[in-house]
Amino acid sequence: MTSMTEALQATPVPAASGPQTLHLMQPQDRARWDAFVRATPAANFFHLSGWQNVIERAFGNKTWFYYTQQDGQITGVLPLSQVKSKLFGNALGAMPFCVYGGPVATNDAALLLLDGAADALAKQLGVGHLEYRGMERFHPDDASWTTKELYVTFRKAISADDEENLNAIPRKQRAMVRKGIKLGLRGEVDNNVERLFAAYADSVHRLGTPVFPKKYFALLQQAFGAECEVRTIVTEDGRLVGSVMSFYWRDEVVPYYGGGTALAREVAGNDFMYWNLMQAAAAKGCRLFDFGRSKLGTGAYDFKKNWGFVAQPLPYEYKLYASPALPDNNPLNPKYALFIKVWKKLPLPVANFIGPYIVRNLG
After folding, report:
1. How does pLDDT run across 33-48, given as a tens digit for each residue?
2. pTM for the structure as a whole
3. Residue 283: is it exposed, middle or buried by C-beta count within 10 angstroms (0-12/13-18/19+)?
4. 260 - beta bridge partners?
5. Domains present along the chain, CATH in parentheses
C-alpha cells in the first residue's frame, strides 16, 4: 500500500505559469543571454551578446537586444540594429555584417512578443523595412513578410580524416591545394589582426569593395576570444600570402573574413588557406565547414561551388514599412558598376582611409 509521503513524492510538480515579459538586455544580462543562446539548438554564433559591443564600437550603429523571460528564465532573444544612410536607406534588422540572425524562441508566445517589439521599433524609427536573416523562413505563412533570392550559403560535413576531406574536394581544386603544399606554404595562428587586415584590405581593394576598419577585426578577436581565430598563410621564407578570420561554434567552423595578396594567385594561396583551416578545424573536432554566404553570380559563389559545396538558399525575410519596395544594395546592380571601377583605381592607403566611412552604411 502506498503511503501518503510516497504519493506526494510521485505527484508531478505543476509547470511554471508566470507571465512572459519583454526586456532589453543590460550588461548584467549578458552571461545568461549567452547561456540561453548556447543551449538553444536554433540559435547561432551571431546571436551572442558580444556582437552588440562590436557593432556599436566599430560602426556606431544603434542596437536593441530584446529578450523574453518567464519565471526568471530567458525564453527568447532577438538582436536588432539600425543601419541608416542617405545613400542606402534606413533599415532595421539582424546585426549588420552577420549572415544569420532573427528571433529565437522556445515557444510561440515568446516569438510573438519579440515580433511585436521589432514591429513597434520599426514604426518608431520610421525605417524603410525590417529584416530577419535565417537559413529557413521565420514567417512562411504570413503575407506581410516577403523574401527574395540574393544570397546562398555553403555548408558541408567534414570528417576527422584529412585524406577523406582532401579527396572530397573536386580534382581541379584539389590540385591547387597540393600545389600550395608542394610549395611549402604553412599556416600560423595570429594573436592580432595586423596581417589579416593587410591581406584583406589588399584583396577587397582589387575587387572594388570598401574595406572594414581594422578596429572591427580587433574588436571581434577581443569579444569572442578562442572562438575567433586568425590564421595566416605564409611562404617558406615568410612572405604574406593570405589570412582568414574564422568563428568556431559548437562543432562548426565558419571562415568569415579572408583575403589573399597578389602573391596568392601564383602559389594557390587561397585554396591552401581554406584547406589548412579545414585540417585544423577537423583536428579540433569540428564536423561541419560553413563557407558562409555569397551573392548569386559572384566569384565567391563560383569558388565555393568549385570546392564541391552545394549552394543552400538563404530566404532572408523582409517587412516593408516606409519603403514601397526593397532596396537593391547589391554590387551586381549596374548602378554600382562605375563606383566599383573607380574604387579599384584609388591608391590603397586612400581606399583604406575612406572605406570605413562607407562600409558602416552597408550591412
Report:
1. 999 999 999 999 999 9
2. 0.87
3. exposed
4. 242
5. 20-147+315-325 (3.40.630.30), 159-286+345-356 (3.40.630.30)
